[in-house]
């Protein structure tokens, strides 16, 4: 897997991702402490509102950012967005009112909504070999999980030496380091074949996404995975502290089980995907998510739950979650031409966060009103609906050549070159606004 690090450009991009994630992890801890300082017992409401603002920014800004991304130099855009994020982090220690937190969080997450899809779309342009790109996806997933495990520990160590406001300086340093690493390499910046209006550029990613069967299936699987992750992220602390009556360290242990399972899946996925098609692997991962939640609901309803058993279940859930979503970059890359990839990655970013925007409050509300058994059962049902949708929307043979015609094109058009019948795997573009039906 580490052989992909021989590529200097990718090595710098991975390092940029790691330092930016570390900075983000420090900001997560510092933001919670800042909310408590400003709002006291109402800190939970402040953080909940901040998370909602984050999701709204992701859902609304990503398509707009993608519309401008195709006209901008990719490297300059990423550097500017990193510097905006650093500037916001530097402002956070000086806020004195809750509304200021909300404004800064919106600016910060809007910059992230522009940065993340464009960054993700750059990797397949750098690593054009699919085997290498698959390994890069696994390394990226492992970086995310390591950040979630290590950043709180790192923040706790720093808090022994400095005040929580100083953590925001570490966040800014992470974003500046990310910008320096991005600017140190040359990045491809594919341009569209013809100029397009702002409306077409804004909606292009969603239109390509919605007209591609495998991506409709990916959205269904994103819903399935979001049902699981919402339950884990929102309710683990309630299950451990209230239902099991254990300490805060037990919460960390349970979440570490989820992260460990996810990292294990990321480690073995490259070899698995070399032998087994993406559809089977991703559906198997979603099914593991669903059955794990259903099994957890059954255990809650019938037998006392222990921390060890919860860690095992969360590890299985993390394995299924990573198996479901890590290959998604391969599907997005196959489904768009290089100049359209930022728009398609932005569409996935927007639509997947729409799933979380619905399922986060649903998971929390069900847990509060009806308890763990009902919440787990309902979210397992939501996950199963996603699996049914994926099986229905994503055909088994979606990479085969499709025999079709272009009656609006002259016979000497470059696209029509070659002997009849005209056939090739179809990517949604100006010549193929939807998947043609074979005669």
From TrEMBL:
Cell compartments where the protein resides: Cell membrane
Occurrences of domain Major facilitator superfamily (MFS) profile (ranges): 1-398
UniProt-annotated stretches for the region Disordered: 408-430
Membrane topology: Multi-pass membrane protein
Gene Ontology MF terms in the entry: transmembrane transporter activity
Highest taxon of source: Bacteria
SUPFAM superfamilies: MFS general substrate transporter
GO cellular component: plasma membrane
TM annotation in the entry: 12-36, 42-65, 167-187, 217-238, 250-269, 281-299, 305-322, 343-363, 369-394
Pfam families registered for this protein in UniProt: MFS_1
Keywords, comma-separated and alphabetical: Cell membrane, Membrane, Transmembrane, Transmembrane helix
UniProt-listed PANTHER family: INTEGRAL MEMBRANE EFFLUX PROTEIN-RELATED, MAJOR FACILITATOR SUPERFAMILY ASSOCIATED DOMAIN-CONTAINING PROTEIN
Protein's recorded name: Predicted arabinose efflux permease, MFS family
Annotated organism of origin: Ruegeria faecimaris
């Amino acid at each position: 897997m580490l052989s992909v690090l021989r590529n200097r450009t990718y090595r710098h991009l991975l390092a940029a991702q790691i330092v930016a994630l570390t900075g983000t992890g420090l900001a997560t801890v510092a933001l919670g402490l800042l909310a408590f300082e400003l709002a006291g017992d109402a800190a939970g409401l402040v953080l909940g509102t901040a998370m909602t603002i984050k999701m709204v920014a992701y859902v609304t800004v990503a398509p707009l950012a993608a519309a401008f991304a195709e006209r901008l130099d990719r490297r300059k855009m990423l550097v500017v967005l990193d510097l905006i994020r650093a500037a916001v982090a530097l402002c956070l220690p000086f806020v004195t009112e809750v509304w200021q937190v909300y404004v800064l969080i919106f600016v910060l997450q809007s910059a992230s909504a522009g940065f993340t899809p464009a960054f993700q779309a750059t990797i397949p342009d750098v690593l054009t070999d699919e085997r290498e790109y698959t390994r890069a996806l696994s390394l990226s997933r492992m970086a995310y999980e390591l950040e979630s495990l290590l950043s709180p520990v790192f923040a706790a160590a720093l808090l022994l030496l400095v005040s929580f406001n100083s953590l925001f300086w570490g966040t800014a340093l992470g974003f500046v380091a990310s910008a320096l690493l991005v600017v140190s390499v040359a990045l491809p910046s594919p341009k569209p074949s013809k100029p397009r209006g702002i409306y077409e550029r804004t909606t292009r990613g969603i239109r390509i996404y919605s007209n591609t069967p495998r991506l409709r299936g990916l959205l269904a699987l994103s819903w399935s995975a979001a049902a699981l992750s919402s339950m884990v992220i929102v309710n683990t602390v309630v299950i451990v502290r209230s239902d099991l009556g254990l300490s805060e360290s037990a919460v960390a242990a349970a979440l570490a089980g989820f992260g460990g399972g996810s990292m294990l899946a990321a480690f073995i996925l490259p070899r698995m995907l070399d032998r087994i098609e993406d559809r089977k692997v991703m559906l198997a991962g979603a099914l593991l998510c669903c059955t794990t939640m259903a099994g957890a609901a059954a255990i809650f309803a019938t037998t006392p739950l222990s921390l060890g058993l919860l860690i095992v279940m969360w590890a299985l859930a993390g394995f299924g979650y990573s198996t479901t979503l890590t290959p998604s970059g391969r599907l997005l890359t196959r489904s768009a031409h290089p100049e359209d990839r930022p728009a398609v990655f932005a569409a996935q970013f927007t639509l997947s966060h729409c799933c979380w925007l619905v399922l986060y409050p649903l998971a929390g509300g069900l847990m509060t009103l009806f308890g763990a058994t009902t919440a787990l059962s309902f979210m397992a049902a939501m996950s199963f609906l996603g699996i049914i949708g994926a099986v229905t929307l994503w055909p088994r043979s979606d990479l085969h050549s499709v025999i079709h015609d272009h009656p609006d094109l002259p016979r000497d058009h470059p696209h029509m070159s070659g002997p009849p019948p005209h056939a090739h795997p179809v990517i949604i573009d100006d010549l193929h606004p939807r998947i043609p039906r074979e005669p």
